[in-house]
């Protein structure tokens, strides 16, 4: 199944983005992105101290044996294996080594396999898989054995039966609390105990600071060791929103032009795939993905495949795709050498792409 595109993502235009792009749009080419094809390997992309060589064929496999529809997300386990989830039930999970060799595959139960979170519980590792198509979240071991299933929140009184529940992502708190982002459903963030018992919910749909429009991703930000927080995607708002671990709104990181997916942390750096950028008529533009990278102060420092980040009077200007390297970047995974592995949605069944760090 393909990535769900909420109707609001085709119609909602934020006033801030409109103001930022008034002059910038005229300098871009609004039609080539719609029709361009990805270029060949070896191109260098990115900016400043974060530049990368593109290896588009890194993850290619025999599609007759290991087919894919969409490469949704990827994580790395403690052994350095790169674990990818997709929505092809012949092999929902593909596990690579860093050379791009397939080492294992499994999974036939997740027709909308979408969110993938790795949880290291005192040396024992587990996966959390979100499937918005069937409206369930699964906890598994690294071999695919299902250990816990979280179903529609109406079963615990958190939703009405008619409310949509289409979970897109999970995050696991320091105490094992399970956070579920209902990004394609009702826009709530739901909290559960490690045993899957419902605690509460926060957020919901809307344009308030504490609300979401496509709460697509969620992660625990531990860069401040003494004060971990939640960073949650609000994709239509082109933003990440920060909350306390018990769901109190703190602040927003506005990323004008970038329809970001989940936040991914590596040391003090924040990475994210950008599924679309704004260009034509300020709306999301097809095939306009790139990767965005933020420093420890949450300032954008590089946009591999996108325009160079620019700040004017401290305000980030609109960011769009610059080179047709990617189509819809859905997730990134960072290895020990700071290389980036990019998963794409709706990209003509493209396997993961490697970006080799060169500076």
Gap from first CA to last CA: 37 Å
Radius of gyration: 19 Å
Give the overall shape: globular
How many domains in all?
1
Q: Which band does the percent of strand residues land in?
A: 35-45%
Return the structural class: mainly beta
Task: Summarize the structure in short.
The chain has 359 residues and is mostly beta strands. The chain contains 3 helices and 29 strands.
What topology emerges from the helices and strands here?
Blueprint: H1 8-11, H2 15-21, H3 32-35, E1 44-47, E2 50-55, E3 71-76, E4 82-86, E5 93-96, E6 102-106, E7 115-121, E8 124-131, E9 136-140, E10 146-150, E11 169-172, E12 178-181, E13 188-192, E14 198-203, E15 218-221, E16 229-234, E17 239-243, E18 249-254, E19 258-260, E20 264-266, E21 269-278, E22 284-285, E23 290-294, E24 300-302, E25 311-312, E26 315-316, E27 329-334, E28 340-344, E29 353-357
Antiparallel strand pairs: 1-2, 2-29, 3-4, 4-5, 5-6, 7-8, 8-9, 9-10, 11-12, 12-13, 13-14, 15-16, 16-17, 17-18, 19-21, 20-21, 21-22, 21-23, 23-24, 25-26, 27-28, 28-29
Any overview of this molecule?
With 359 residues, the chain is mainly beta. It has one domain (8-357): Neuraminidase (6 Propeller), CATH 2.120.10. The protein is 4% helix and 39% strand. The protein is built from 3 helices and 29 strands. The chain has helices at 8-11, 15-21, 32-35, and strands at 44-47, 50-55, 71-76, 82-86, 93-96, 102-106, 115-121, 124-131, 136-140, 146-150, 169-172, 178-181, 188-192, 198-203, 218-221, 229-234, 239-243, 249-254, 258-260, 264-266, 269-278, 284-285, 290-294, 300-302, 311-312, 315-316, 329-334, 340-344, 353-357. The strands form 7 sheets. Strands 19, 20, 21, 22, 23 and 24 form a 6-stranded antiparallel beta sheet that branches. A 5-stranded antiparallel beta sheet has the order 1-2-29-28-27, with no helix packed on it. The radius of gyration is 19 Å and the shape is globular. The two termini are 37 Å apart. The model is unreliable at 8-36 (pLDDT under 50).
